[in-house]
Amino acid sequence: MLRRLFLAAIVLCALTQQTQHVWSQQPTAQQTASQQTPPSATPKTDPAPAQSKDTVGSDTLFQRGLTTEQFAQLSARLSEPNGYFDTDNLISNESSYLHVMGKLRQMKLSGGAFIGVGPDQSFSYIAQIRPRIAFMVDIRRDNLLQHVWFKSLFALSRNRMEYLCLMFGKPVPADLKTWDTRSIQDIVAYLDKNSSKRELFTKTVADVQAKVKSFGLKLEPSELETITRIHTAFFEAGPNLKFTSKGRAPRYYYPDYRDLLLEKDLTGKQCNYLVTEDDFRYLQTLEERNLVVPVVGNLAGGQALRQIAQFLREKGERVSAFYTSNVEFYLMRGYQDTEFDQFARNLSTLPRNANSVIIRSYFNGTWGYEHPQTVSGYYSTQLLQTMDSFVKEYDAGGYRSYTDLIGKHLLDLR
Predict the structure, then answer these.
(1) Is 290 helix (H, G, I), strand (E, B) or coil?
(2) ∠408-413-414 over CA atoms, to 5°?
(3) Could you read off the pLDDT of 386-412 as tens digits, one per residue?
(4) In principle, which of 121, 222, 285, 339 could form an S-S bond with 334, CB 3.0–4.6 Å?
(5) Is residue 23 within 8 Å of residue 328, measured between CB atoms?
(6) Is the C-alpha dihedral spanning 230, 207, 200, 282 positive or negative?
């Protein structure tokens, strides 16, 4: 009886969660060709990547970072054509996004390469894991443009307080340096107390546009306008900004940006990337060295993930964590039945070790059906699984439904 109820919950979720990420896209010719690969066993990847001849050189590369030219070339090499997404996805709608953090600390997960989707929720994972390089992959080019905007804010900011003031058009406090040791609650209180100023926003827009043009990426004039549109949304809504879908109002349970800043993990620890100056500066230095690489890509496409895998193998590096949000839900009901298979084959090419993990999200919907790991009061649930267990289960034919995916080989977060 309980199993039938849980299966019913999945069906209802599929019907009700239309406001979640629509990651499917009408397949391009390139993707169609890639998805016609015979469904043989997935490519095997060594648990730890073999060290290449360029290991010493790659260590130096990660220490000094990529040049502007290398950064732009790598982003272009990895990227696919722009795809469709029915939301602006300017911020996360996953209030549970930090619930994996305690387990990641327990596993002592660190270093390697991070791969993630979406806007800046991945920054909090990066701040804790401290990877050597990160790839922000999303089917929409607008997400790449938003990450270019984040990159410009990091470059223009002296600390996290100034970063948030520039983001929302707030006046920067005269005693800026003293805010290095202030709590995130104090920073949020300052943002709420002080009104946004149009003249400050206008100046920051000009500074951002100039900075964006220095990153070496080929951007059309319309894309520079998109960056300003993204900035305007943050300015107009302030910390009240929420995830929105085209033609639909935000769900009442979606967190706003303020909520995401103040969220805690399951141990009660606040660990958003803006909670401490140390975490902020780690992200800032990674951005300064051009080691947060924005990529346009479908996780079930024929290029992005496979090119990332090739790059990492060339550098003798492995993936530490892969944040997929709830992308797999949509790949399992995509335009082609082979979409999830192609994603699984893509993932299997990524260099990894026994500690490499997938971080995903599951949405309970509005009908009260909950995943066994759901935390009371949360409509989203974070799930954690090792990449090795995913590949092994997929090779054995064990993923026949979304229920299988969110129910097998999950690590206990509590």
Answers:
(1) coil
(2) 125
(3) 999 999 999 999 999 888 999 999 999
(4) 339
(5) no
(6) positive
